[in-house]
Amino acid sequence: MKKAVMYGAGNIGRGFIGKVFSDSGYEVCFLDIAAEIIREINERGEYPVRIVSNEGHRDEIVKNVHAVHAGSEQAVSAIAACEIMATAVGVNVLPRIAPVIAKGVIERMNTGRAL
To answer: Residue 11's Cα: distance from chain center in Å?
Structure first.
């Protein structure tokens, strides 16, 4: 299965981008710092998203997901192995996640995977 990394497991990360990745056939690895979110995603392996429109709403289940701590070596490995990656973090967080992303890109290059 194709692998996607979603840096940030908040409303945008899970409710929009992570869902789009999953719907497109990717296994999604969320990178976050919130231990409770990481635990719940890993325990369930899925999560609900409510789709709201003028006609009402419906709930959909996003599957093929897991999560790791955003600063861990697992995060670096996930970045190195993925086919696609996105971030949904605040602008003030970007400088803090850049070193982990850089390590993942370096690991990817060292294993011969093209960017």
So the answer is: 12
The strand pairing partners of 63, in sequence order, are 46
Q: What distance lies between CA 112 and its chain's CA centroid?
A: 23
Cα 115 to Cα 104: distance, rounded to the nearest angstrom: 11
Alpha-carbon distance values, 70 to 32, 37, 47, 66 (Å):
5, 12, 19, 12
What is the pTM assigned to this prediction? 0.93
Per-residue pLDDT of 46-70, as tens digits, reads 999 999 999 999 999 999 999 999 9
- The single-letter DSSP state of residue 113 is -
For 3, residues 6+ apart whose C-beta sits below 8 A from its C-beta are 26, 27, 29, 78, 81, 82, 83
- Contact indicator for 59, 49 with CB cutoff of 8 Å: yes
Instruction: Find the angle CA(90)-CA(63)-CA(73) to the nearest 5 degrees.
Output: 55
Q: Cα–Cα distances in Å, from 66 out to 85, 109, 112, 115? A: 14, 24, 25, 23
